[in-house]
Amino acid sequence: MKFLLDNWMLVTIAILSAAMLMLPVVQGAATAGLDPQSAVMLMNREKAVVVDVCEPAEFAAGHIGGAKNIPLGELESKLAGAVKNKNVPLILVCQSGARSGRAVAVAKKLGYENAQSLGGGLKAWAAANLPTEKA
Asked: What is residue 69's predicted lDDT score, i.e. its pLDDT?
């Protein structure tokens, strides 16, 4: 205990260093999911279906071309009608990737085992200079 009290500055620096080393790991967990390039390859090669879980106003402001709009609150009741084949890859998208992460859990609960979230959402898509459409 005397060592900690005598060297409080060193202990503080050690704790701050550990926190800074863990920061990328924590941030990576928040943006987990497909990167935009992998999503494009999945769409082109395996005919993945893109489902945008944003609200209709957000969807109208900008979305991935060919995406189906099913708001997160309605996903459980409407997904089976919109995507009949549960074996097809499913890419769930929102503005930042937070809602689509929750949507993946709903889709997997419904039997869509190939459901994935677009990491970073539509912001990451736009940052990768990929095209969007407006309704």
From this structure: 96
